[in-house]
Amino acid sequence: MSNAIGDTDTDTETGTGAQTQTTTSGESEEQIREDWTEYRFDGPPKLTVEDLDVYYGDDHALKDVSMEIPENSVTALIGPSGCGKSTFLRCLNRMNDRIKSARVEGSVELDGMEVYDPNANLVELRKRVGMVFQAPNPFPKSIRENISYGPRKHGDINKGLLARLFGRDDTEAELELVERSLKQAALWDEVNDRLEDNALGLSGGQQQRLCIARCLAVDPEVILMDEPASALDPIATSKIEDLVEELAKDYTVVIVTHNMQQAARISDQTAVFLTGGELAEYDDTDKIFESPESQRVEDYITGKFG
Ligand SMILES: Nc1ncnc2c1ncn2[C@@H]1O[C@H](COP(=O)(O)OP(=O)(O)OP(=O)(O)O)[C@@H](O)[C@H]1O
Ligand SMILES: [Mg+2]
Predict the structure, then answer these.
(1) Dihedral, CA atoms, 59, 64, 68, 74, nearest 10 degrees?
(2) For a tag site, which of 5, 158, 226, 269 has the least CB within 10 Å?
(3) Is 82 in the pocket of ligand 1 (CB under 6 A)?
(4) For the domain with range 45-301, which CATH number is right: 3.30.70.20, 3.40.50.360, 3.40.50.300, 3.30.70.100?
(5) Which residue's CA lies nearest to atom 31 of ligand 1?
(6) Long-range contacts of 20-29 (CB under 8 A, 24+ apart)
């Protein structure tokens, strides 16, 4: 580490030459340098975010964020409460469109295709870029129906009276999909004998894995997770963490977490947002946690503020 905890407030050790005066909240006022957020990696980016600004009414929640997210890996988003992590995450599949006061400027590309194209198909986008929220939100339906709802909506499986009348009842395909998705989400062993039970009867940790299974059932490419384990006990949390690492072999995972150890354990690269909605630093997770360039990032990681 360039500076140990409890070092002076000057940034001479970081060699940035930036002015760092400490504010009353304990956050220094250094200038963010562009090269701190230019993360280089092999291969094409899965998501490319350029000059992204988000406003809620007059509130400028996210400021000029540019970031490239590599495929089949885990990208952690960390930073103090209110710094814009959820806002950023929601921009990646246009979930902010649902918030009336939100205005998004800038560009997000998925495999080089503009997500904010006015002609973009939002149903298709959210199939490719799925989302798992902080609080598990299963539908008040059976475990099986929670999984098959999405694929049925997208027409991948046909069931019900109309489908049967037209000879397209895909009961077998449905059960295969339910089993595959629940296995992928490491939940199958716990629920395979009660697929018709109401999903709300599952524990919180099981409900969250069900939501992950539901997200996987439509074959996404990117999975956005907003603090998916924050409401769970340590055992359920570690199951989700193992799962996230496993998923990154086939999917691009972007995960918001307040838990530094979790970010350090499961992510390949980490983006640190700071108060005011700025991206302060983005790099390999080891680099961020062992020798960050930014004094404020170092202070945040070592618990001096936030
Ligand atoms: N729907 C909304 N309407 C108005 N303002 C919002 C809305 N959602 C977020 N904001 C504001 O935007 C800023 C960023 O919020 P956001 O929820 O993205 O932060 P966060 O980093 O996810 O915080 P936390 O760690 O507490 O979840 C905050 O100032 C917040 O008050
Ligand atoms: Mg949030």
Answers:
(1) -30
(2) 5
(3) yes
(4) 3.40.50.300
(5) 82
(6) 20/295, 25/275, 25/305, 26/299, 26/304, 26/305, 27/274, 27/275, 27/296, 27/299, 27/305, 28/295, 28/296, 28/299
Ligand 1, pocket-test mutation among 53, 58, 85, most atoms within 8 A of CB: 85
Regarding the beta carbon of 204 and ligand 1, being less than 6 Å apart is answered no
> Which atom of ligand 1 is the closest one to the Cα of 99?
1
Ligand 1 test: best mutation among 53, 86, 92, 275, most atoms within 8 Å of CB?
86
Q: How many angstroms separate the CA atoms of 194 and 155, rounded?
A: 25
Q: Which atom of ligand 1 is nearest to the CA of 227?
A: 27
Nearest residue (CA) to ligand 1, atom 11:
61
Q: Full-prediction pTM beyond 0.90? A: no
pLDDT tens for the chain, 306 residues long, are: 444 443 434 333 344 444 455 555 555 678 888 889 999 999 899 999 999 999 999 999 999 999 999 999 999 999 999 999 999 999 999 999 999 999 999 999 999 999 999 999 999 999 999 999 999 999 999 999 999 999 988 777 877 777 777 777 788 889 999 999 999 999 999 999 999 999 999 999 999 999 999 999 999 999 999 999 988 889 989 989 999 999 999 999 999 999 999 999 999 999 999 989 999 999 999 999 999 999 999 999 998 876
In the reported structure, the alpha carbon of residue 32 is separated from the centroid of ligand 2 by a whole-number distance in angstroms of 22
